[in-house]
Amino acid sequence: MAEDGALYDFCGSPLWDTNHTWNSETPEFTPCFERTVLVWVPCGFLWVFAPLETHYVLRSVDRLVPWTWLSISKLVGSALLLMLQLIDFFYAVHKWRIGEDVYCVHFLTPLVIFVSIFLQASWVLIEKKRGFQSSGYLFIFWLLLVICGIPEYGSYFVSIQDQWTETESLTFGTYMVYFPLIVLMLIFNCFGDATPLHLDYPKGERPCPENGASFLCRITYSWLDGLFWKGYKNPIKETHLWDLSYENASRTVVTVWDKNWRKTTAKAYKKFWDNFGKGESHTSATCTNNATHVEITGTAGNKEHYLSILPTMVRMFAPSFLMGAFLKLIHDCLQFISPQILSLLINFSESDGEEPMWHGYFYAVIMLACAQLQSFILSQYFMRMMLVGLRVRTGVVSAVYRKAMKISNSARKESTVGEIVNLMSVDAQRFMDLTTYVNMIWSAPLQIAIALYFLWDLLGPSVLSGLVVMIVLIPVNGALANKMKQLQVQQMKNKDHRVKLMNEILNGIKVLKLYAWEPSFENQVIAVRNKEVKILKQTAILNGGSNFIWTSTPFLVSLATFATYVNLSSENILDAKTAFVSLALFNLLRFPIAMLPMLITSLVQANVSLKRMNKFMNANELDPNSVTRENTENRPIVIENGTFAWEHGEEDSKPVLRGINISIPKGSLVAVVGGVGAGKSSLCSAILGEMEKISGRVNIKGNVAYVPQQAWIQNATLENNILFNQTKQTAQYDASLRACALQADIDMLPGGDKTEIGEKGINLSGGQKQRISLARAVYADADIYLLDDPLSAVDSHVGKHIFEQVIGRTGLLKNKTRFLVTHGLTYLPQVDKIIVLKDGIITEEGSYKELLERKGEFQEFLLHYLIAGSDEDDDLEDLEDIKLQLKSTLGDDVIQKQLHRYKKESESERSIDSESKDGGPRRGSKRTSESDKGKLTVNGTSEKKVGDKLIEAEKAETGKVDFGVYKYYIQAVGILSTLLTLLFYALSQASTMGSNVWLSKWSEEDTNDPKTRDMYLGVYGALGIGQAICILGGSFSLSFGAVDAGAILHADMLHSVMRLPMQFFDTNPVGRLINRFGKDIDTLDNVLPWTLRSWLLCFFTVCGQDS
Fold this sequence. Notes:
Number of helices: 39
Strand content: 5-15%
Strand order of the largest sheet: 9-10-11-7-12-13
Largest sheet: 6 strands, mixed
Radius of gyration: 40 Å
GO cellular component, one term: vacuolar membrane
Shape: globular
Domain ABC transporter: 637-864
Distance between the termini: 56 Å
Domain ABC transmembrane type-1: 322-605, 979-1104
Keywords: ATP-binding, Membrane, Nucleotide-binding, Repeat, Transmembrane, Transmembrane helix, Transport
GO molecular function: ABC-type glutathione S-conjugate transporter activity; ATP binding; ATP hydrolysis activity
Low-confidence stretches: 279-304, 869-874, 909-934, 936-947
């Protein structure tokens, strides 16, 4: 009573009057309630959530929204509202001064509204400066203000009819202006403002309309209307889709991922040193300067240190995940309001007019509003979680890709191509799929607990029997989950093996077809696939059992609860309220319980994928500090006492290069010669940092361009292969083409330099590929050029042209530092220095004349060259010059004897193995590669026009799915399995409907006769058991049918691919085919059965509700 007196003194009326509000035929709030609670709620929201809005504003990367009519209107409206509140405040002051009754609320309420609207106007200006086009925070404020203002607005009209005093005319007038203004401000906030002037992320050609959409458009998804209408009229294609927004772009996601991954590695490095020396330690650690990688192997202090990507994902996506969890929490709480309103609605229907009629309408409106609010919140939750999953997948794929670029050579032996492909496709997808439903880990127990709480309130201790049923089933599902995890590990190993085998087959398909080996390799793949199918069937049995348990759990809980309830006391009668409210709560139990088996399966799969990912991310990397880049050195390339191996470890650390000492002056041309296996290419790799440096020092000063022995060609135009994402400088580009003798080839091509090059340069000759690779390096304009035998694949006259125009003293690279690995000894007199390698050791170095005079390894190499050159019809003038130089130093007799001896040795080696290579230079591919010159026109592609695509674009069906696709899949599943699945799920839904109808009939009985009670209870139990058995049968028939369909479709696809003509493989990338055998087969095996099961349950449930 004291509180009521205090509030009366504050407001001049009571805060709440039940008779006036709830028990009245014309309900209305008290004036005190309207001027306090209904004002403070929206204003309180504005102030409470101001820190959160500050966080979002500070995170904004865009700046300066231009002035528009919308932003000006918001400020003008805010100014008018501020004026109205000042008028109300000073009017109250005036009334107080003249002695009229004025209460504190008349002073406080205008001040609260004034300060809140002033804060809102400040946010409008701040958000305009920070690039905000729409604010959900302000939209909700105005919405709450309008909703809370409706009762007071209606009260003024009621007061006109009842009584009217002249002193209230000003207050009435200000509110009549105030309320339309706040409605107008709400309308203003329903629209998005103009695009900011300064965008951190470029808009692109097709900017996403979501970025500029208002908050209302976002929560209602009306920004998608244009796409929906376009899809209604025509099939949606990829070209119709918009560009990614800033927060979903790879650039943004990868940047944040790297930042958090560095924190993980730094923490692991610190933890290693903190534990160093504690207990028995067998741990070694390596940390790069920029802390992007830490290698930790072994144990320290008897505790494993293992880098995991999980902390990185948690740090990166925790805020978005927590926001989604908050939305899920609100949704879970809202869905339990409906059963309570249903209880009130049943009471209202049974009241026989004792309650006012508007109560029924009120309950119905509240149920509708609650359902719509649930829909809004749940849709936002799923969108946010799916976007988080997409970002997780983006981060994981980028991390795996970059790790694959850096792993050491020893790690490459353990990580197969099939494993890396599966990591980026299957395992990354596992994380994305799990993210959507991972909140069910806490949401499902919460929903079950809330449902049991309300059931306890309704049925009392009888609920404990249902709780016992649920607890008993938990260990059973734990055992099933553990077994499924073991099977998942085996499944992924078999999948890796199969994808690796398919990758090898597709890369060597030409050889397979030449030798007609298709059936043999097809059988190998089928054998691995059969192992997968065997495990999939075992998993299907476990999934079927899990589905059976969780599907029957809601019924068993309800059966045990109802049976206990009616048997506890004769007074416990199952009336309509108890039956239907309980049934609504039991139905709410169905979703979390039904989701648990899928969640368990997803968690098991994601856990296996996480371990596989962590194993790969912890693989050894190439040491980025093996090659230093100190600019204080005078010479571009310096190696001191260098010893290098391809791998590290006790077994694989045999040095390939030993005691290497090289110092190359700036702008010089250095040639490296030696026999096959001498270590010339390895020396290039050592300079690039791609070998394990066992000892010594390597320093590079300047940028490096590398031309490998085997040219790397992209599936792009010839121009793009040369530019390599650099800006085109026409003069430099044309000079590179002329110097690399490509202009004649381009003139022959139908599209010129715009001609598309097939995958791996399939439509180029070996010489053309090598010259394009060289032109790419020349155009890069680097400081240092590592040229690994670039002239071996071209004809001698083309080689001379390239040497003179590119590499030699008058070429384009004359002022660059050139490191040339070559067997073309005719060019050696023109180089500044020659390095001779043998068995990984530098045996000689010096100028051409100096090496000739020493009569060492270099002379022997020249003799080998003369033998090979005479067999291969090399340039006779060059050979004669070399012979004359040797004769002048060794003598004619000695030269003839040596040539005769080397020739006999060469012939004896060829008689033993005609295909083996001798110790001389590798020149076998030299003549054959350039003989295919003009290959682009010979292969029938001369009729291609500019802009035509050699590689066919991947086609996807648009519009509705053709019935033939369903028919084909049904035939693969099997007619019997299909019919049994449909029959079982139909019977299951029929049993569910029957149990609900039977429960309704049971609730109409007013007696608790044991015989009648047992009859109803028995029939209800029989219907529930029938439903569970049907679900079990449907799960088995669907799972086994889907596994058999996957096996059949895989076998058919493999059979078809193996018998396709070579033209197909020339015009379709290998990666596309690998995706069919990797990701798509995984979808058939694991995703499609769950999707079909969910669809069938939904379909028959809808049919059952309609009937």
